[in-house]
Amino acid sequence: MANLRAGMVGIGSMGKNHVRNLRAIDGVDLVAIADASGKDPFGVAGDLPILPDVDAVIEAGVDYCVVAAPTKFHEEIGLKLAEAGVHALIEKPLAYDTASATRLAEAFESKGLIAAVGHIERYNPALQSLRKRLENGDLGEVYQVATRRQGPFPARIADVGVVKDLASHDIDLTAWVTQREFELVAARSIFKAGRAYEDMVSATCQLSGGLMSNHLVNWLTPSKERRTFVTGEKGMFVADTLTADLAFYSNAKVATVWDEIANFRGVAEGDVTRFAIPKPEPLRTEHETFRDAVLGKDSDIVTMAQGAKVVQVCEAMITSASTGEFVKIS
């Protein structure tokens, strides 16, 4: 079987990593690269010319295309790919707003095309292991998910705030890991960097089945933190997606005989287990999964319908922060 012919639109700070993985995975040939700037700032194009736009990539005859252009261009680029019958993997967030994201999802679905969104955290080894353990009932009843995604401002971001750029990761991973749907959102945000977009958000949400989630996200913190805490009947899982480490803190089975300490502690700390798990690069796994989906194999891609739902929850956070009210997710 001939290799799949892949195209790439956008070779900035994220696009360069997509290019590296497109060249690394089996069964794929990267045949066309486009960037609106006409430049190759990271020197990744090799012997391929820098094409001006997605139209030129389509003309090159590609089976699928990866899009890492600024968010505001996702809909325009994606609709052209769908019309041309080209499968697509579009970076997150899927689109600038829910209406645009929905149009994209419907366009690809109507053509029977494989279409995915680059929510890379789904492919983090720590979270993939966590999802399996929750499915197996290792935590018992799940009570709460809490995420902390903090770090310095990324100069690459120009057209969205911290909610759509960063909180979108936590929205998707929370729904995916727990296999629940967001139902209710409350949020507060602040603007400190002199931009039109929020720099910090704190959100409290309700998911199906009464599950609670809390998300603290900002790009005002001098050091990076990417942690997910899932608390339940038997203890707590902690996933660090920067290091792809997963640990489990169990509730103690040994009674505390010192009554005052027992009352103070509430649930007692038990054993701590740090799991040894394989750690492939998440972006590599994402590309291999999408390739397999294009080939007709059973693959767990992030569908555009799921990506549109993430954008909807993001917009609910932004609305709640501006109105001071809870927002229901329809």
Automatic annotation (TrEMBL):
Domain annotation GFO/IDH/MocA-like oxidoreductase: ranges: 128-237
Gene3D superfamilies cross-referenced by the UniProt entry: Dihydrodipicolinate Reductase, domain 2, NAD(P)-binding Rossmann-like Domain
InterPro entries in UniProt: Gfo/Idh/MocA-like_OxRdtase_N (IPR000683), Gfo/Idh/MocA_Oxidoreductases (IPR051450), GFO_IDH_MocA-like_dom (IPR055170), NAD(P)-bd_dom_sf (IPR036291)
Pfam (any one): GFO_IDH_MocA
Name listed for the protein in its UniProt record: Gfo/Idh/MocA family oxidoreductase
Domain Gfo/Idh/MocA-like oxidoreductase N-terminal span(s) in chain numbering: 4-119
